[in-house]
Prior knowledge:
- It is a single chain.
- By secondary structure, this protein is mostly beta strands.
- The chain has strands at 4-14, 17-27, 44-45, 52-65, 70-80, 87-95, 98-106.
- The termini are far apart.
Amino acid sequence: PGEHIAGITLYCAKGTDTFYYTVFIDTPETTAIGENSDNSDFIIFPNPASDCIYFSQKIDFTLLSVSGKEILRGWGNQLNVSGFEPGMYILKTTTTKGNSFHSFIKQ
């Protein structure tokens, strides 16, 4: 029980460049991205997406980069991602039961 912070470092080597990303997850109920103990029926589609992503229900959300930087906050059941750079993003959803983290890929 209680609040936990987990740090994850992702390594991506491309040619001679190596990129390092650190993601910090701060939530009382979730221990990993993709573990949706408080909202197991929540779905993001399509994934990957190029224009819009849709959610299986209207929900409060925060969009995060893989480095943990907050990009935007919103409420609803869809998000236009056409203006975002291609890559992986994290969607933090908030309900009365707590927070869940969901990943999706922008093409």
